[in-house]
Amino acid sequence: MVYVKNFIKCFVAFTFSFGLLIFAFSENIKIGLLGGVTLSLFWSIGCTIHGRMVDKYKIPLIKEELEKSHQVLLYGQTILLGNKGKPHGSRVENNKGGALFLLETGVYFREIILRTSYEMLIEYCDIEGVQKGGVQNKVLQINLKNGGCERFTIEQREIWITKIQELVDVEEK
Known about the structure:
Layout lengths: L1 H25 L2 H38 L5 E9 L15 E8 L2 E6 L7 E5 L3 E6 L6 E6 L4 E6 L2 H16 L1
Antiparallel strand pairs: 1-2, 1-7, 2-3, 3-4, 5-6, 6-7
């Protein structure tokens, strides 16, 4: 169901964007609309297939590797949001697509690009709190005790918030 919802969001957003772009060049509303729908359809199908491939093939490999030395409590595909215009700032310059794992020791992020893999572990003792990250309905914000924060887009944000907060509370006791 997540793939269908993401496909529809992607299709609607790109239809408008591509349609306006094609209309600007062709100065014909019919060509702009038809071209926008066509390009958006192909783009949305590509994005959906890519997301499915990451979920099915790349994330399980990382999970399997992590399970050799950690207990994986929860995992999912995510985007680590960069620091441009974000409150407190993040340690990354740009958005990074990857996987988020809830381990017994902390919240672990690994970028999925194979050539240059960025990774980060936020230990539970370093977390001050977890909350929804603004008006966007998928943003999870982890506030750190040093005043910084890390923001991720993630499906089922409420489950992540609850689980992370439970583990932070256990760590503090």
